[in-house]
Amino acid sequence: MRLIFLGPPGAGKGTQAARIVAKHGIPQLSTGDMLRAAVAAGTPVGVKAKAVMDAGGLVSDEIVIGIVADRIEEPDCKKGFILDGFPRTLAQAEALDAMLASKGLDLDTVLELKVDQSKLVDRIIKRAEEARAAGQPVRKDDDPEVFKTRLDAYNRDTAVVSPYYAARGQVIEIDGMQPVDDVTAVIERALAG
What we know:
Elements: E1 2-6, H1 13-24, E2 28-29, H2 31-41, H3 44-54, H4 61-71, E3 81-84, H5 90-102, E4 109-114, H6 117-133, H7 144-158, H8 161-166, E5 171-175, H9 180-192
Parallel strand pairs: 1-3, 1-4, 2-3, 4-5
Helix pairs in contact: 1-9, 2-3, 2-4, 3-4, 4-5, 6-7
């Protein structure tokens, strides 16, 4: 089961991905985490990434795809994986497809959480309040202004990824405004079908 989660920040991708991880035993792959791990491990791609980051640059799509390519070779990815927050651009989606094809792999499903973006800021404020009330740290990106910047970036750069996969018949749209358990139930039915 090789999946991609699409949807704007705050849509619930991380929450739903964690539930799939728990139920199906496949890892959720975060490009940020993979990048940090590759740098720490000193892999060839990690060394390239470190040089770029040390110079203050943004890591290229080529390096990110290389890190994903290395990571999906790990034993825990043999049954599949979930990409959450990647690909972020059309170029990354095309590069991901080419890399998977070179390994004889395909994506199984692209799950897109559809949400009312006007209500997302309220959801983020509530999430920050709940974290504070529970004595947990508030995520830096749960600041409403930071969140609005991330949402603008999503709409500008990432929203185009969905039509790319939809044209290939790979997107399953899910109403992300439902209660969390209902979203999980719809996802499980979609994955079973």
